[in-house]
Amino acid sequence: MELIGGKQTIIEALKSKYKIYNIYTENMDNVDNEILELAKESYVSISEIPEDLRDAREISQGYLASIADFNYRDLDEVTSKIKGDGLILILDHLEDTHNLGAIIRTALCAGVNAIIIPDDRSVRVTSAVFKVSAGAIFYMPIIKVKNINYTIDTLKKDGYWIYGADMKGGSDIFKTKLNGNICLVVGSEGSGISQLVKKNCDGLVMIPQVGPLGSLNVSVATGIIIYEIFKQKVN
User: Which domain, by its residues, includes 169?
Assistant: First the structure.
């Protein structure tokens, strides 16, 4: 069981038909109308936050909900359902839950079909990810894999071009033609993409920058790149 908080996150959980056990509120006399209606449709009860949960850090905007543990998806199952050109994101040992939540939210808006994370030494889907993603997590397939390089090889066999985000050695993202099935690999906050994964990419891309700072925040950089891919897909 997971605990999530925040009005919008709970609304999206209800809309997506995610398994919700209970919804709790700090004020039964002032429950959001949309939550009331959606909870009624899904036969989910709403009650005051119980004593043993009143100090839960997940409480946000006066709401808390208990939901089923997050269900990680299977790669073959997800890719088999993609229609047209796919866009898949691999996060190579990302560590920060807030970055993951922000990336999920942007990725959903930019047409990403799935996000892949490694099983070891990597961020997981937590209550913080649910909150930061503002409910996008309920619509975005997250796939956990044992080996990123094996997964890249699998995607290559399925017709995907693999591009790694490399702020130092890549080609200008805005001058790179990106069409067909695309998989973008983004590295960790501190060290970027591992050398072995980098060698396995078909190409490397970077975002041109000015000013004294060395690099962008990983969630911001990821958003810029996937929106450039999205722009090329729709134009």
Answer: 75-234
